[in-house]
Design brief:
The structure holds two protein chains of two kinds.
Chain A: E1 4-14, E2 17-28, E3 32-36, H1 43-51, E4 56-65, E5 68-69, H2 75-81, E6 83-86, E7 93-97, H3 98-107, H4 118-131, E8 142-143, H5 149-163, E9 167-171, H6 179-191, E10 198-202, H7 207-211, E11 216-221, E12 224-229, H8 231-240, H9 243-249
Parallel strand pairs in A: 3-10, 3-11, 6-9, 9-10
Antiparallel strand pairs in A: 1-2, 1-4, 4-5, 7-8, 11-12
Chain B: H1 11-20, H2 25-40, H3 79-82, E1 90-94, E2 97-102, H4 105-109, E3 113-115, H5 117-123, H6 125-131, H7 142-150, E4 155-159, E5 169-175, E6 185-190, E7 195-204, E8 210-220, E9 225-233, E10 238-248, E11 253-260, E12 266-274, E13 280-289, E14 294-303, E15 309-318, E16 323-332, E17 340-349, E18 355-364, E19 370-379, H8 382-389, H9 395-411, H10 417-430
Parallel strand pairs in B: 1-5, 4-6, 5-7, 6-8, 7-9, 8-10, 9-11, 10-12, 11-13, 12-14, 13-15, 14-16, 15-17, 16-18, 17-19
Antiparallel strand pairs in B: 1-2, 3-4
Classes of the chains: A alpha/beta, B alpha/beta.
Chain lengths: 260, 433
């Protein structure tokens, strides 16, 4: 069944300051939505608030995935309900190997007594790592510890591939990637495209969207989605920047949180 | 502040015990001399720890132990530890004395001695006398002196020159009678170019408060290698004060693996004296504190020999309102050129009431050396919990992964699989998982 994800009136604050000022977005399985916008407009906050980062407080709104409001759930429940966030700054966790971590994550989705067998797991993980051109030694490395920026991003995509989510949010997955790494990451994402799965791609460069073709493009400013369109919107933003959008909408300062 | 040490026995009682035990005269004299010292000496000074407020006077009195003929008759509280040990080299002490000793005929034929120290003092008096109390000196403080006056049972292991023992030798030290003195002394002598692994477990099974005043002395001969692994899992009832020392000759190696899994107040001091050139020491300590435990763990390396490397790692997890003071002392003496002393102490606190304090100390009197230290005290990082949970892992499991990850760099380096698994189980138990 194609996933259905509806965000309505989402407002969120950090340390009492409102960053998201009412986000509305509807997406279905099979669709790729891009969220673009200059820095400081709330794009990453949207990703973090949806996932449930402890620093952000959701004050209003719903984010309903297949009939269930994610915002009522704990972070791990959101993940098990089918949400995946590829993070911009993944944590490094010493002493926990990549494979132990991912196996725990897979088994968290399975009933007790029906855990994935070690051999099957390793085989799957090795196959996906090969697709992402990751060195097999990353299986046994401590989670993200000492990984380069590009290695961390690939590791995020690896997790996405292993966990088979319904809705994927990619938070600036292109930042810090050279063009070759970007292509590999994009291929990984494209290989996961399916009629069931939806993607929300957050970026402020059009570049990523050359490799991951969006169906819908949304522009975020001042904590809201201020403009939506098709792929042609991204191309115009790439060619002309954001100034014309601001002029069109009468926005002087597109950011939120400048007074802090 | 001066506190008068309360002596649990008098000289007449020590003389009587020594005589009924059939001890050699030198040992009786050694005990009496130590008793005099105990009356005069102060308690050890522990960093930020008021050991005088601990329950350290409950020595009880000597009670003769009844030997068991076979492991099947051993106390049920140690059943899990002795499972499958029928053929193994094993010493079991229960309260004041040994109840079981076994050494394989093959090792005995090579000249290996492995028995309780009380028996060794009678049967191998010269050898025991040469080493006993030469690493942990009764003159150091009142607790060491009382230990030397009162020690009972214990373990003696002698490995002759060039003898290499592959299978670990084991000992279990059990206190299950709070009224019985429990002061085991472990003495290990590894002669030139020998090699041995020794593993012991300290266990209690009682409810009334008691004390373990323990000392471990390891003498590592030239080119010899000793691996000493110890797991302390006393219950809340037992206060544990343990001094461990190794003296290492030229090119000898001491490896300490210490699992501090007690439930009661604990002070331990594990020290390697690198006497000979090329001597080396590696110490790994993992600890979990829970309840309202007061804990003070010290590791030390003292370098006299040239080209002597030492490495010390302590990782401690503190939950509930456990308090831990963790000290690492690297001392490099003048003349110990090309010595290399490294140490790391890390504490992970799981609750706002848990306390941890890491004190790395480098004392260096020689220029031509390398030394380093790292210490950290922190709580579980909420970003890390969030990250793990964002992949569907429950909070409980996320915390567990992070805690084990914290201990993993030490646990994964433990070369004995059985011990590694045992520590894993004990950590899980102490973390209530």
């Amino acid at each position: 069944m194609a996933a259905e994800f509806v965000i309505e009136g989402l407002k969120a604050t950090i340390e009492g300051k409102e960053i998201l000022k009412g986000i509305n977005l509807q997406m279905k399985g099979g669709e790729i939505h891009a969220i673009m916008g200059p820095n400081g407009t709330g794009k990453s906050t949207l990703a973090s608030a949806l996932m449930g980062h402890p620093k952000y407080e959701v004050t209003e709104g719903t984010a309903v995935l297949d009939g269930e409001d994610l915002l009522e759930m704990a972070v791990d429940e959101r993940a098990r309900a089918g949400l995946f966030l590829a993070m911009q700054y993944p944590s490094e966790i010493s002493g926990v190997t990549n494979s132990d971590f991912l196996r725990s994550a897979i088994n968290a989705r399975r009933e007790e007594g029906k855990e994935i067998s070690l051999i099957k797991f390793i085989r799957q993980m090795e196959a996906k790592m090969k697709e992402l051109e990751m060195n097999p030694e990353f299986l046994h490395r401590y989670l993200n510890e000492g990984f380069s920026g590009g290695e961390k991003k690939r590791n995020e995509i690896l997790q996405m591939m292993m966990l088979d989510p319904k809705i994927v949010i990619l938070d600036e997955i292109d930042s810090g990637l050279d063009i070759d790494a970007l292509k590999i990451v994009a291929e990984g994402v494209n290989s996961m495209r399916s009629p069931e799965r939806g993607f929300l791609v957050i970026t402020h460069y059009q570049r990523l969207l050359n490799y991951i073709k969006p169906d819908f493009v949304h522009v975020m400013m001042q904590g809201r989605i201020v403009k939506s369109g098709g792929p042609e919107l991204a191309e115009r933003l790439e060619a002309e920047g954001y100034e014309w959008v601001k002029e069109e909408l009468g926005i002087e300062d597109e950011t939120v949180g400048q007074e802090v | 502040m001066t506190t008068q040490t309360i002596l649990p026995v008098d000289a007449a009682r020590i003389t009587e015990l020594s005589q009924t035990g059939g001890e050699p005269a030198w040992l009786k004299d050694s005990r009496l001399k130590a008793l005099e010292l105990a009356a005069a000496l102060e308690l050890p000074k522990l960093e930020k720890t008021r050991i005088d407020r601990w329950n350290i006077n409950h020595y009880g009195s000597y009670k003769a132990a009844t030997a068991v003929a076979s492991l099947a008759e051993a106390p049920s509280s140690v059943a899990a530890l002795i499972a499958g040990q029928e053929e193994g080299n094993l010493v079991i002490q229960r309260n004041s004395g040994a109840v079981y000793t076994h050494l394989s005929p093959e090792l005995a034929a090579q000249g290996v001695i492995f028995t309780d120290l009380a028996t060794a003092a009678k049967e191998h008096g010269d050898l025991v006398q040469k080493y006993l109390h030469k690493a942990v000196l009764p003159e150091e403080h009142a607790i060491a002196a009382l230990h030397a006056a009162l020690w009972n049972g214990g373990v003696f292991l002698y490995v002759p020159k060039n003898v290499v023992i592959e299978t670990p030798l084991q000992a279990i030290l059990l206190t299950d009678d709070a009224e019985a003195t429990f002061v085991p002394h472990i003495l290990i002598v590894a002669d030139t170019n020998s090699s041995v692994t020794y593993v012991d477990n300290y266990v209690s099974d009682k409810t009334e408060a008691g004390l373990h005043n323990g000392a471990v002395e390891v003498f590592v001969g030239a080119g010899a290698a000793v691996r000493y692994a110890t797991v302390h899992q006393f219950g809340e009832d037992t206060t544990d004060v343990t001094y461990r020392r190794a003296v290492v000759e030229n090119d000898g190696t001491i490896e300490w693996i210490v699992g501090e899994m007690n439930y009661g107040d604990t002070a331990s001091d594990t020290k390697s004296v690198l006497k000979g050139n090329g001597a080396s020491s590696d110490a790994k300590v993992i600890a979990v504190g829970s309840g309202s435990q007061k804990l003070n763990y010290t590791t030390q390396a003292q370098h006299f020999g040239k080209s002597t490397p030492s490495d010390m790692i302590t990782r401690a997890v503190m939950r509930e309102s456990a308090t831990s003071i963790i000290n690492g002392i690297t001392k490099i003496e003048k003349g110990a050129t090309r010595a290399d002393g490294q140490q790391t102490e890390k504490v992970l606190m799981l609750s706002p009431k848990a306390r941890g304090d890491a004190n790395p100390i480098l004392l260096i009197d020689e220029d031509d050396v390398t030394a380093g230290h790292a210490a950290s005290v922190g709580q579980v990082n909420p970003e890390q919990i969030y990250y793990l949970m964002s992949r569907g892992i429950s909070r409980h499991d996320a915390e567990k992964l992070i805690i084990y990850g914290f201990l993993a760099p030490v646990v994964s380096q433990i070369p004995l699989e059985g011990l590694r698994n045992q520590l894993q189980t004990l950590v899980e138990r102490k973390l209530g998982q």
